[in-house]
Write a structure and sequence with these properties.
Layout lengths: L8 H7 L6 H16 L6 H28 L11 H8 L4 H26 L1 H18 L11 H22 L5 H5 L1 H17 L1 H6 L5 H5 L1 H26 L7 H17 L7 H28 L1
Helix pairs in contact: 2-3, 2-7, 2-9, 2-14, 3-5, 3-6, 3-7, 5-6, 6-7, 7-9, 9-12, 9-14, 12-13, 12-14, 13-14
């Protein structure tokens, strides 16, 4: 008889990959700051409910992705180099427990989402339904989006774009698609997080039969696309701040000094074989700096 391990809090912590929650936290902060900038009074209750909902949805997506990779044998002991990838390979948990964990997280997120819709209107329901359906299609079903060349595009638009739009709508009470344009740095940096992961996992994904963007377009084209995206994400902050938030533009000098070293590291990264945690660490720092300064400049423009 097989002996199963108990799903401990430490195991749950690894499965939901909290170090990746920045991809939902920063878009929430972007949406909140845009809402405040355009005259909405700040509601701590609404903000924390929106933040918790976004984090729970991402936690469910991360857990589901890890589970599906384990079920599809994409993650194996010899190709896992991070705790969140290897947790299901190294430990024998009941698959039922993993599924119940994902369902439990989604129920909490759904409960918060229903409360938000009742408080702020039908527009949030539409955004939530789009996000929820995408979450399911992203890592589950016969053709998961994360296994296709659309992974970067979809993750960027949904997490980097729809989350700021949902937060703005929830706090402001109206849906304004102009927010998607102002969320370009968020959209691009979320997409880049996904692409960095896929570049690092090219060999593993190819073996598993995945058709991610780097595999479909090839290593050299993927390098060119990667460099183009980090350049556009960097430049987009200058353009958006100068055009829309010019009173905060005095921070652009500090922004440049802090971002350039990380930008250059990422520019050369595709040519150098580096451990996954090094690549993801550099992209995480880039993501933080781009969005932190952008959010700060929006806030300063609102104050000055």
């Amino acid at each position: 008889m097989s002996t199963y391990e108990r799903l401990t809090p430490k195991a749950v912590f690894s499965l939901v990959v909290p170090q990746a929650w920045i991809s939902s936290i920063l878009p929430v902060l972007t949406g909140a700051m845009l809402s405040i900038h355009y005259g909405t009074s700040f509601s701590p209750t609404l903000f924390y409910m929106l933040l918790a909902t976004a984090i729970l949805m991402q936690a469910a997506a991360n857990c589901s992705n890890n589970y599906c990779d384990f079920r599809n044998k994409t993650d194996q002991l010899e190709n896992c180099d991070s705790p969140e990838q290897s947790i299901l390979v190294k430990h024998k948990f009941r698959q039922r427990d993993i599924i119940l964990l994902i369902i439990g997280i989604l129920i909490f997120a759904l409960g918060m989402g229903i409360w938000l819709v009742l408080m702020r209107g039908i527009a949030l329901l539409i955004i939530g339904l789009i996000g929820g359906v995408t979450l399911v299609l992203y890592s589950a079903g016969p053709f998961p989006i994360c296994r296709t060349p659309l992974g970067e595009l979809v993750s960027g638009l949904v997490m980097g774009g729809l989350i700021p739009l949902a937060v703005y709508t929830g706090m402001n009470g109206t849906m304004d698609f102009h927010v998607l344009l102002l969320a370009i740095p968020s959209i691009l940096t979320v997409s880049l997080m996904m692409m960095t992961n896929n570049l690092c996992d090219m060999e593993k994904d190819r073996t598993a039969g995945r058709r991610t963007l780097p595999i479909v377009i090839g290593k050299y084209a993927a390098r060119a696309v990667y460099r183009m995206l980090i350049t556009i994400s960097f430049a987009s902050v200058y353009v958006l701040v100068i055009l829309h938030f010019s009173d905060g533009a005095f921070l652009l000098g500090f922004f440049t000094v802090h971002v350039i070293p990380v930008f250059l590291r990422l520019w050369h990264m595709p040519d150098i074989l580096q451990p996954r945690h090094v690549c993801m660490g550099s992209m995480l720092k880039f993501n933080l700096l781009i969005n932190f300064y952008y959010i700060a400049m929006i806030g300063l423009d609102a104050l000055l």
